[in-house]
Amino acid sequence: MAEPTNDHDADNAPSDDEALLDPSEAAEVIPDDPDHPMDSEDEDPQSDGDRQEEIQLQNDSIAYFDLHTDSIFCIANHPLTPTTIATGGGDDTTYIFSADVPSPVLPQSYESNPYTSRSSLQPIAKLTGHTDSINALTYTLPSGDYLLTGGLDGQLR
Predict the structure, then answer these.
(1) What is the predicted pLDDT for the residue at 66?
(2) CA neighbor of 88 nearest in space, from 66, 72, 77
(3) What is the distance of C-alpha 111 from the center of its chain?
(4) β partners of residue 125
(5) Do 135 and 150 contact (CB within 8 A), yes or no?
(6) Which of 83, 51, 76 is nearest to 127 (CA)?
């Protein structure tokens, strides 16, 4: 049986000197260019660049929920009642609330006074007990009898 040949012997490998490029072999030398802002073609040369555009934001949502005091990390819908929603977040709290609100015919921005204040959805339940952020929620299947919460404290409740 013949011995396998190894093409990567140390004798065939290029030396470190051969692997480097000699400066005389370079076709072009690119000078260092310090980082500076790009020119904008649409700017007026007379302006000082402080032009600001006003953007009017409007919220066309029919409801909102803002009782969490930190970021929301997970959301779960009830399997039989999809408008029953659970949220868990960085405030170590889970809220269960109903998003079943009457839907208007047109978005609020089409009303004669579109900037009326809406109140937040009220929770059905507030679940506490975790000592760190809640990052997992699920209802048991098929009927959603229980809600399981998992937190960064290593507990499943």
Answers:
(1) 85
(2) 72
(3) 32
(4) 96
(5) yes
(6) 76
85 strand-pairing partners: 77, 97
Whole-model pTM? Answer: 0.56
Q: How far apart are CA 97 and CA 91, in angstroms?
A: 17
Cβ atoms of 92 and 134 closer than 8 Å: yes
**What pLDDT sits at residue 39?**
67
pLDDT digits (tens, 9 = 90+) for 49-58: 567 888 877 6
CA-to-CA distance for 120 and 104, rounded, in angstroms?
17
Each residue of 1-23: pLDDT tens digit? 555 555 555 555 556 666 677 77
pLDDT in tens, 75-127: 999 999 988 999 999 999 999 998 887 666 666 666 666 556 667 788 999 99
Q: Is the dihedral of CA 149, 151, 153, 156 positive or negative?
A: positive
DSSP assignment of 3-59 equals PPP-TT-TTTSPPHHHHSPPGGG-S--PPP----PPP-TTS-TTS-S----------
